[in-house]
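Batch manifest, entry 17 of 40.
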Amino acid sequence: MTPILSIVVPSHRHAGLLASCLASVARHAPTGTDVIVADDASAGHLISRVAESFGVRCVRLPRRGGFCAAVNAGLAVARGEVVELLNDDTEVQAGWADAALAHFVDLRVVAVAPLVLQHGTSRIDTAGDEYHRGGYATKRGHGVAWQHAPDLLRVAGPVWGVSAAAGFYRRSALEAVGGFPADFGAYFEDVDVSHRLRAAGGEVWYEPASVVWHHVSASYGRRPSRRTLEAQSCNEERVWWRNTPRAERLRGLPLHLAVLVGKALRRQGEGTLTPWLAGRVRGLLTR
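Output type: structure tokens
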């Protein structure tokens, strides 16, 4: 039996993008899908009004909490056995849900990554996540044109992790590992969750027949602010320390330091070394 689906869409200010996202869900979601918009304290209840216009449920945070807080608020009222998180700058395509939900018949599967394409192009944004033990995550197939994608990306199979931009999760498994890390705010929270789901023994799969379009970087622009860069750097560092077992840290630390040196040189070349370093220091202090 196909599991019942809840969709949680966190949103703060992108009313136009949210409307496009909800319109695509209305067109393509299976009958009975439970749709929830998590209004992250939008000005003038703007996001709540968009949700109301589509006749979907809405939970509103009393003050801005960030992506993770909004996700957790939506999860708290979700009814489905499976929950998909959708960024408000995504649009789902026909059949996307059924293709992903089929994997959850296997109780070992705790998350499914759809094929996420960059909106308006045939290029892949992500076909699931991978994580390097030195301390960084990568998007499988990122930037590759779909028509030239290797066979590995054209078939369903196990992957390391799921991007929360459009990831499907077994709700009970997500609740068992504590949900999304509220102190992260946003950025790399999905990598942290994938670590915990895998550590609990869950399996993660990729399904290329589940297609979602993503307006890439619509949330923070093509040139992220210094504040955004610092938050990304902080959370990336937190992920490594929180999810690398103590017994493996000493052995893995030289590789992690090598990764940090490489990243620092890159940031220096980009002129963003200061916020990157500030974020790393904050990550070490709050790990």
